[in-house]
Amino acid sequence: MLLTVARKRLLQSYLYFNCAPLSTVSANSMIPKNAAQVPDLNKIAQCVKIYTLKKRLRLLESFPNRTLARALIDKSFPTHISNTNSLLWPIGRVLRDLYTLEYIKTKYPRLPEEGVAVLKDGLAGTAVLNQLAAMFGLETIGKDENLVDGMGKIIYSRVPAESFRQGRESYKSEAVARTILSILAGVYIHEGNAAARLFVQNFMLSRYLPPDTLMLFQKPKQQLRALCRRLGVSKPVYYLEAETGRKSREPVFVVGVYADGERIGQGQASSLKLSQSQAAHNAVLSYYIYSPSYKTLPSETLDKDGIAYEPPILLPPGQIVI
C-alpha cells in the first residue's frame, strides 16, 4: 500500500494534534466525578520496574520515564486525562496499522482483503499485544492491591467477575493491548518514525505466520476459472498425472491443472474429484501468496533521511468476486 502525499500529511497532522496535549493538557480537562487518587507520575517514573521495562524494550536512555509511566495507566482508570494513556494509544493504533499493513501489502501484493485482515490480526492483534506484554514482564495491578504497591504495573478499572462492562470499566486484554500501543506512540514521539517502525518490525512482524495456513477457499475450481478469465489465460484443464492402488482400499491420484500449456497447480487425494479440487486450491493459493522482492517500505519516506521509495513490481489486485 503506497503512501500518497495526502496520506502523509494526514498522518503528520493527526500525530501533531494528538501529541501536542501530552505536555500542555489543560487543567480544565474533564475529570470523572468518581476520580481516584493515583500515585504521582514522577514517583512511578522513578520505580525500579520502569527502568527494567525500559531496558527490555531497548529504548534510548533519553526516553522519558514519565511517558512510560503514563502508558501504564489505562484510559479506563478514573483519574485526570493527563495521567492516563488516553492521548497515546490512538496514535499507537494508527502507527501499528500503518507499519503492519504496508508490510503485508508490499510483501503479498496479490493477497485479498480478507486475507490481509486475518494476517494483520495474526501479526499485531490484541492477542499478540498481550503476548508481547507477557514477554516484557508487564503485570496488571491486583484486585485488592493498593496503588502504591502497584507502581510499575498496568493500572486499569477492571470489569467485575460475572458481570457486564459498565462505564469506564475495561477488560484486562484490552487494557494490556492499549499499554503496548501507548508505548509505541511514545517511541514515535521521542525517537522518531524509524525507531517506531523498527519497534513494530522487531516485536510484531518478526513472527513467522505463513498466509497459506490462514486461507480457505470454499469453491477452488470456480475461483480458479474466474482467476484465469480475469488474467486473460485459457480455461484450466485437469490431467491425471499419476495414480496408484485404484482398486485398493487406499488409492492415490495425482492431478495437475494446466492453463496456456503450463502447469499452474498440482493436487493429491484419494479420489479424482478431490485431487482436482486440491490442484485448483494450490493454483489459486500460489497466485495469492506470491511475494516479490522489495528494497524499501513506503513509510521510510517519512524518515529524516528522506530516501526515495522504490516500489516492487505491482500486480493487479487479487480480489475475486464470484
TrEMBL record:
The question of whether Translocase is a record keyword is answered with: no
Q: Which PROSITE patterns match?
A: DS_RBD, RNASE_3_2
Stored InterPro entries: dsRBD_dom, RM44_endonuclase, RNase_III_dom, RNase_III_sf
Gene Ontology terms, cellular component aspect?
A: ribosome
What's any GO biological process attached to this entry? Answer: RNA processing
Which PANTHER family has this protein been placed in? Answer: LARGE RIBOSOMAL SUBUNIT PROTEIN ML44, RIBONUCLEASE III
Asked if the keyword Ribosomal protein belongs to this entry, the reply reads yes
> Which species is this UniProt entry from?
Schizosaccharomyces japonicus (strain yFS275 / FY16936)
Q: Which GO terms describe its molecular function?
A: ribonuclease III activity; RNA binding
Report the residue ranges that make up the DRBM domain in this protein. 219-289
Q: What is this protein called?
A: Ribosomal protein subunit L3
SMART domains given for it? Answer: DSRM, RIBOc
Q: Where are the transmembrane segments?
A: none
Q: Which residues form the RNase III domain?
A: 50-192
**Which keywords does this Swiss-Prot/TrEMBL entry list?**
Ribonucleoprotein, Ribosomal protein, RNA-binding
